[in-house]
Amino acid sequence: MSILGTRVLRTEDPRFLTTGGVYTEDLTDEALDGACHVFFVRSPIAHARIGRVDLSAALAAPGVIAAFSGADLADLPAIEPMMAGMLNAKMTRRLLAIDKVRFVGDPVAVVVTEDPYQGEDAVELVDVDYDPLPAVVDFDDALSNETILFEDAGTNVVVEFGNAGSLKPELFDGCEVVVSHTFGNQRVAPAPMESRAAAAVWGEDGRLTTWIPNQGAQSARDDLAKMLDVEASQVRVITPDVGGAFGAKFGADPEHAVVAWVARQLGRPARWTETRFENLISMTHGRGQRHTIMIGGSRDGDVLGYRLEIIQDGGAYPRIGAVLPFLTIMMATGPYSIPNAEAIGTSVVTTTTPIGAYRGAGRPEATAALERALDLFAAEIGMDPADVRRRNLLPPFTEPHQTAFGALYDSGDYAAALDKALEAAGYADLRAEQASRRASGGTVQMGIGVSCYVEITGGGDESGAPQENATVEVHPDGTATILTGTSPHGQGHSTAWAMIASEELGIPVENFTVRWGDTDLIPVGGGTGGSRSLQQGGAAVQQASKELIELARERAAAALEASAADLQFDPGRSAFAVAGDPDASVRLADLAKDERLFVHSIFTAPGATFPFGTHVAVAEVDTETGKAVLRRVITVDDAGLVLNPLLAEGQRHGGIAQGAAQALLEEVVYDADGNPLTASFADYPIVSATELPSFELASMETPTSYNPLGVKGIGEAGTIGATPAVQSAIIDAVAHLGVRHVEMPTTPMRVWRALVEASAQGTDSESA
Amino acid sequence: MQVELTVNGEQRSDDVEPRLLLVHYLREVCGLRAANIGCDTTSCGACTVLLNGESVKSCTVLAAQATGQDVVTAEGLAAAGELHPVQAAFRAEHGLQCGFCTPGMVMAAVSLLRENPSPTEEQVREGLEGNLCRCTGYHNIIRAVLAASGQAEVTA
Ligand code: FES
Ligand code: FES
Questions:
Q1: What is the pTM of this model?
Q2: What is the complex's ipTM, to 2 decimals?
Q3: How many domains does one find in chain A?
Q4: Which domain holds residue A538?
Q5: Best mutation site among B22, B36, B37 for ligand 1 pocket (most ligand atoms within 8 Å of CB)
Q6: How far apart are CA A142 and CA A348, in angstroms?
Q7: All domains in chain B, ordered by first residue
Q8: Which ligand 2 atom lies nearest to the CA of residue A193?
């Protein structure tokens, strides 16, 4: 029986459960003996010119070895925005700010201490003269260009994807109903439980070895080399266990480069672990878009036109966040057939923490805008939101479908996913219960949200081309090693990659060692992000394993003095045997005795894949307090064939929770002066166990032909489907009271205010 | 100052700074690094250990305060080579992904089940409210605790 598709328990777990993972802060590598400790001095002001930076008092503090300001690193190149060709290349950053600070948390200096507990006090002693400038927190303030963050750039606009002049006035001609609305897709914090960290040491050969929690050692190495102005071959990045990442640990950050620079400057190893406070103000945030939608169609429910206008907050320095509208636009019409659609986007800089990738990165925003638009349209024509969706979904297809926005959907059956989810939820019964609750007029009302999505995984984003490499080696003792260019941080690649190779080689899963995240061992790799790993990295492991069998077949033929064509490989025994003569056999492992038995292979996919599904959420809202409680989440997430249901479900659960959290409670907040108000877990309402129900997952597996495993990415489905479903359920709970929209997060205050406003409007129209 | 306490069954006596936190004592003096530090506001529970059988956030306790007491960390939970039933349930139910919250979460669960051997789902959620996990959405953690209490099927 095949091991593929079965619930194999994770081989990595016993270690995590007993001694715990070895995260960067846990490292006891002797190369790090005698390490000094780096502490960042961060701007307390959102936007200011930097005057004098006085390090003298800090230098005199106990245990302080050294202190440096931006001027000390001035000979290192300014960091250009990624994809500098596309983004405004004048919006550069220094490793430590020199002339200006542009967000609260912008690093201006470092203090280096002997002991890990001496730094926090010494940081307070660094005296920086700030000449404050107006903060730019709001989208409109940024667009007005009244205060400009980068004078050389002359504008706060980082990039435009299309422009308002290109919009077609006739887009909604012939529509009986047109609805428009502007709403936010708020900024949230990725908040992995492990903050950022680094450990760095330079060898006598002039090479840097650095340990960084990351999502791909190879891109972290390339980023570091650029920031430190050295050749990539001079840098070795090692990835310890990583305590969650969610997109925010891709590549290397300026802080990682500064730690390496300090280690070189002082000629001794250096370490850094950020506090949660630092993490919440200076690790990249996610989302941060504002949407203006217009949707039109017929009274009987055909959507004929859709327009999406996006403003993206890029934060203080353009990073991947500034590029996200590109993906949002690509996925603008989602799983629907909409004859006329257009989408444009503008990214701006603001004096806030830079925006990066966060689970879904650009696609949750597209789905949230579109699903909200469909709900508003359904409400306007008085039709059930599920019916409106079914009526407009693309028909099932198995040959790739080209969209107007340049996406090539590989395979899909969207209506089947919708129907399956509605059935699993008991949709008709839920609507009946809702009707009776409404009729009884109680204070706790119930709402149902439905969200259909299609998303893009394994595309050519930060991770590069849709390809990945793997090396599989069988050892004489019957064990095997897999080297992969992917980089797990909770996904369970050690188990999953071993399952794939085990299937081909007949070696038990527990006999595999899977290795990643050491650029000397594995110089090339795309890392883990954009839900790419299984469909490319897993496929590479399968391809390498199959090629290894063919390589071994030649050796077996020589050993058995038979023709290679007459040999059969029996995975049950992990041995080759001569057809018709089972006694003439040789074990795979024995073929590694005289000469190493390994294959390095590169798998290239024809393109990105497009998983899809439907989420249904059920929420209760107390109409007196505005408090919403999420009661149920039911999902169908079709990401092709499932390799290990245990792992796939875990990915769905985690994503659903983060997606629901965005709808319910999480938001990064700044005041008008750009001061962060959510800089600790006491203030940032990170979702806990009491705010979530258990999730109900229905399965659906439509294979893709883009890889031999038939798999698509599952890592981000949860955040893409759940956010709009949950938001919609909460609005739906009070829709009969006249509420059409509540901004995210749907806090009690916002729901209550929407109820008050709706009731005031209702009274107005009654009296009119 | 001198602290004398039992850590995972071993009697210890160490000279420490009076303001040293228990979590730093465990990690740096004892070399027990399973408990992690995930916040600076006693919000996350990644540092949870057992103090005289009850779960505490070890970032809120001074090493000095643990004098004369009995500390158990995730390292000390498993009897030689065997996972503790709560640890085994976390594995069986896939109650961990990146593992960062896990040692603290497991200790909180052990303590919860000691106080309430047959909790409802809601009681488990409430009992673990002070332990944050960013990876699992809590779903499988809750299942693991219920399974460890003998109340849930081992697989879905
Ligand atoms: S480290 Fe977060 S509660 Fe102790
Ligand atoms: S498993 Fe990653 S934080 Fe819980």
A1: 0.97
A2: 0.97
A3: 2
A4: 467-604
A5: B37
A6: 6
A7: 2-74 (3.10.20.30), 85-148 (1.10.150.120)
A8: 3
